[in-house]
Write a structure and sequence with these properties.
Layout: H1 5-25, E1 32-35, H2 46-52, E2 62-65, H3 69-80, H4 88-103, H5 107-120, H6 129-135, H7 140-143, E3 154-160, E4 165-170, H8 180-187, E5 197-199, E6 202-205, H9 213-223, E7 227-230, E8 236-237, E9 241-244, H10 252-264, H11 270-284
Parallel strand pairs: 1-2, 1-7, 2-3, 7-9
Antiparallel strand pairs: 3-4, 3-6, 5-6, 8-9
Length: 288
């Protein structure tokens, strides 16, 4: 699914231009980056972060991290300290296969879920799957780090099933003592596909698939005066916000549904390799 070189160049340029505008509007210390949900193709957000410059991520006033974006964000932060397990060259070849293997995806599991899942009320994938995914890309020591020790002003957003509200997990917020592996098992727990993650005796799911998602995004947008929102649905720029779609696959919702189907049936997803290639190119390009 590799694009024509001209289309690849156009998307790379769109990302670089959006990031250059973002950087020009305020010091990075006063700027906010929000990495919205991506579905199974978390690497989509890597290109945006590489265009900003991975060494500049710690300078950002805040990074809001939601859903599948968690894995590209943590993978890139691990590279800052040399605590990653795998290079971009290896990810291009192996990243998609490793993700499917961690999920133990396949036709049998999916058909069993479709036939019996509604009766038994069991999710498709096992608890702890996302922690396994993270462990394939970062060192054990990095996965065991506390959110409070991350070194980047990141806010990981979860939805508390019992309190029925979004929760900000951050070094200056709730649950700052949680490990990154624990957060990974909560932040992308899509209902019916994964069991709820647990932290401090509380149950959490992916906030993108919660009833509070729209209100959460409104609140995050109200807090920032220079805000880059990397998302899969819309491109739009105004005086305070830059919505940026870092993928070339048209309807973002349709793309995510297709990506989940590929994952469920253990089918290769060339979009993931394309996302890693784009990140590798933008990592090699000079930042503004």
């Amino acid at each position: 699914m590799t694009l024509h070189p001209a289309a690849d160049d156009a998307l790379d340029r769109k990302i670089r231009d959006a990031v250059a505008l973002f950087r020009s509007r305020s010091p990075l210390e006063e700027a906010t980056l929000t990495l919205d949900g991506t579905g199974p193709n978390g690497p989509l957000q890597l290109a945006v972060m590489q265009a900003i410059g991975r060494d500049d991520l710690p300078r950002l006033g805040r990074v809001n991290v939601l859903s599948g974006s968690t894995f590209s964000f943590l993978g890139l932060v691990a590279r800052l300290s040399g605590e990653h397990r795998i290079s971009y060259d290896e990810l291009i070849v192996e990243g998609d296969r490793r993700n499917r293997r961690a999920h133990r995806a396949g036709v049998g599991r999916t058909l069993t879920f479709l036939v019996a899942g509604r009766i038994r009320k069991r999710p498709m994938f096992a608890g702890g799957t996302h922690g396994t995914v993270l462990a394939q890309y970062v060192s054990d020591a990095f996965a065991a780090k506390r959110v409070a020790d991350l070194g980047v002003n990141a806010s990981f957003w979860l939805y508390d099933l019992d309190r029925k509200e979004p929760v900000r997990v951050a070094r200056d917020g709730e649950l700052g003592d949680a490990t990154l592996a624990e957060v990974a098992n909560c932040v992308a727990a899509v209902p019916r596909l994964y069991p709820a993650g647990r932290l401090a005796g509380r149950r959490f799911i992916d906030p993108v698939y919660s009833p509070a998602y729209r209100d959460l995004m409104k609140a995050l947008r109200a807090e920032a005066d220079n805000h880059l929102i990397a998302n899969v649905i819309k491109d739009r720029t105004d005086a305070r916000e830059i919505f940026l779609v870092p993928h070339p696959h048209g309807d973002g919702r349709k793309m995510i549904r297709g990506d989940f189907l590929r994952l469920a049936f253990n089918l290769p997803n060339p979009r993931i390799a394309d996302a890693y290639r784009r990140a590798q190119r933008l990592a090699a390009a000079p930042t503004a």
